[in-house]
Amino acid sequence: MDCVRFAHFLHDDGVGGFCEWFAKSAGVATEYSTRPREQISEILLAERRYLSAAAIFARLRKARRSVALSTVYRTLGHLLAKGVVAERADAEGEATYIWCSGGHHHHAICQRCGNVEDADCGAIEQFADLLRAHNGFQLEDHAMEFFGTCKSCR
Ligand SMILES: [Zn+2]
Ligand SMILES: [Zn+2]
Ligand SMILES: [Zn+2]
Questions:
Q1: At residue 34, does pLDDT exceed 60?
Q2: Residue 111 Cα to ligand 2 middle (Å)
Q3: Which residues surround ligand 3, an ion (CB under 5 A)?
Q4: How many whole angstroms from 130 Cα to the centroid of ligand 2?
């Protein structure tokens, strides 16, 4: 079994690194040796929308990347744990993922095209004051999603 096929067989990051070195020294095109984590990150970075593992898998296949669906799930788990990807359940309850790094922000999701805009939440301070005054509630944290229509769909 040659190195490239061996990498496809194992779907392992560690082996991928070794194979990249091996493929380079053997003069084999290294495109096949790109790690699944980089390929999946690339797809998520390129699209400002939530994608299911199946949708990511379909895009990998279209780009002729040989990555198993189980590797897509495992890689998404890694990226979630690293805090660079956010997860939400879509209308059908399926888990979907978006690249989400940087500081605290919220997602404004277009209900027509699925485009996601990052939204700041400076106004929450006023709402926290209201909660304190009217309900005696001390706001410690919050989670919000906004739904509507994006600029290009309006
Ligand atoms: Zn985000
Ligand atoms: Zn839209
Ligand atoms: Zn906020």
A1: yes
A2: 7
A3: 121
A4: 32
pTM, whole model, 2 decimals?
Answer: 0.73
% of the chain surpassing 90 pLDDT? 71
pLDDT number for residue 73: 97
26 vs 143, higher pLDDT? 143
From the CA of 146, how far away is ligand 2's center (Å)?
13
Name the architecture of domain 34-102: Orthogonal Bundle (1.10)
Ligand 3: centre distance to CA 104 (Å): 6
Pick the CATH number of 104-154 from 3.40.50.720, 3.30.1490.190, 3.40.30.10, 3.65.10.10: 3.30.1490.190
β-strands 145-148, 51-52: how paired? unpaired
Burial 14-34 (b: 16+ CB within 10 A, else e): ebbeebbebbeeeebeeebbe
Q: What residue segments make up the domains of the chain, in order of their start?
A: 1-32, 34-102, 104-154
